[in-house]
Amino acid sequence: MKNLFKILASLAFVSFVISCGSDAPDADPMENKGIGPISSVTLGDINPAMAEEGEKTFKQICQMCHRLDADHIGPALRGITNRRSPEWIMNLVMNTSEMLQKDPIAIELKRKRAATMAVGDLTESDVRNLLEYLRTQE
Ligand code: HEC
């Protein structure tokens, strides 16, 4: 009986250690704002005019490599605003090469792919409009 207790106690200890160990990699991605010029974005109701502008830019530039519902050269982007913070998305577009070198999520995405994201210069308002468009594609 004593031995059984010891076994149960050590099993509980081992599972406790395992669950602690897995905490770090599961850090909430929505808490990560990325690295770049955008430190804070306040989201209100979706602005349809901004989303429409964003859709144009998406079709001109992003669609070379991204589809909404399928992985293409880059990952599928439907629902991306539920998986990444607005700041992270904008920083990835505005500061792509530094993000791909230093941000843990971006590094992990790059590791899985042959191609690398590259976007020409876009203004902050272009990229904010893109974010607004992506918010409509949940
Ligand atoms: C030349 C191809 C290319 C273009 C153009 C491109 N991307 Fe990407 N994108 C990628 C690749 C590849 C990745 C994965 C990271 C890597 O390997 O560089 C990525 C990753 C992303 C991610 C992260 C996805 C995730 O699952 O977290 C977002 C968001 C994104 N791109 C948005 C955009 C937007 C918005 C545009 C248009 C301004 C754009 N991308 C243009 C290739 C591209």
Structure characterization notes:
The chain has 138 residues and is an all-alpha fold. It has one domain: Orthogonal Bundle (Cytochrome Bc1 Complex, Chain D, domain 2). 54% of the residues lie in helices and 0% in strands. The protein has seven helices and no strands. Helix 2 packs across helix 7 and helix 4 packs across helix 5. It is elongated. About 6% of the residues have low confidence.
Short description:
With 138 residues, the protein is an all-alpha fold.
Tally of distinct domains: 1
Mean pLDDT: 89
What's the total number of strands? Answer: 0
The CATH homologous superfamily name equals Cytochrome c-like domain
Instruction: Give Rg in angstroms.
Output: 20 Å
- Looking at the overall shape, the CATH architecture is Orthogonal Bundle
Number of helices: 7
* Gap from first CA to last CA: 55 Å
Global morphology: elongated
Spell out the key features of this protein.
single chain, 138 residues, mainly alpha, Cytochrome Bc1 Complex, Chain D, domain 2, 7 helices, 54% helix, elongated, binds heme C
Sequence-ordered SSE layout with sheet pairings:
Elements: H1 2-21, H2 48-60, H3 80-83, H4 86-94, H5 96-102, H6 104-111, H7 124-136
Helix pairs in contact: 2-7, 4-5, 4-7, 5-6
The site of heme C has 24 residues, from helix 4 and helix 6.
